[in-house]
Amino acid sequence: LNKTSGGHIINLLSNDAARFDGVFVYAHYVWIMPIQLAITAYLLWNSVQAAAIAGMVLLLIQTLPFQGYLGKMTSKLRKDTSIRTDERVRLMNEIVSGIQVIKMYAWEKPFEKLVLTARNKEIAVLVKNCYVRGTNKATQLFTQRITTLFTLLAHVLLGHRVTAEKVFTIVQYFTRLQTVLTFMYPNAVTKIAEGRIAIKRMEEFLLLDEKQELIESKTPDEKIAIQVEAVTASWDGEVKVKTLDNFGTIIRRGKLCAVLGPVGSGKSSFLQLLLGELQPSEGIIR
């Protein structure tokens, strides 16, 4: 159940599932971009001839390799953010569930520091993600201007005369390309990377082992209310030391029973077992 906590499921439904909206909106620009690039390059060639090659090469150098690198960074940061968000939400759920014990023993300050540490780790990754997004936005301010200036300079050096008609035409062409190469295409790469991370996280959740029903509705003796036989259970299936190992007991009808034992002996786990919150890996509960 540590992999299916309420916070983890809420994060999958609220954050990871929402990533698909952006994927379907921007993913098409991955194949639209080459077509628009080819058409615009043809129109530029008709306008400024060989100078168009210089402008297009500079534009591609400024955008595609750089944006691909930013997309990989965004994918990695998105994965790190999801892990830290899951940890923070899980921690908050546990604190809320045990708030009475925390208040009774005056443990507010230690748990406050624990939450702040988890939150600071999450914020550190979010800040890095904001820097990456800010760098991406900054490229939109100068890409079109530098490319236009470089194209006009190449056009003049080739012995042609610059006119207002050519300047405004080139500016419009590169503005359209800038929108696709520095906004739509980077967003497509980013959304696809985030979508892949979301799919992987959902796949890991959906491929978890199915819950095994080892609880029978009736006991063989009507005088017995609850019968537990050789039950082994653990909150984490990967650990070697089980929470309950080969545990068994009988609770008769009409009897008052108390669960006693030292801290960490499994009292709460036994009650969670009876409630069905802790699933046994072996044994039978009647």
Automatic annotation (TrEMBL):
It is a multi-pass membrane protein. It is found in: Membrane. It comes from the Eukaryota. One of its GO terms (molecular function) is ABC-type transporter activity. The keyword ATP-binding applies. InterPro entries: ABC1_TM_dom, ABC1_TM_sf, ABC_transporter-like_ATP-bd, ABC_transporter_C-like, ABCC_6TM_D1, P-loop_NTPase. The chain crosses the membrane at residues 23-45, 51-70. The keyword 4Fe-4S does not apply. Keywords: ATP-binding, Membrane, Nucleotide-binding, Transmembrane, Transmembrane helix, Transport. This is ABC transmembrane type-1 domain-containing protein.
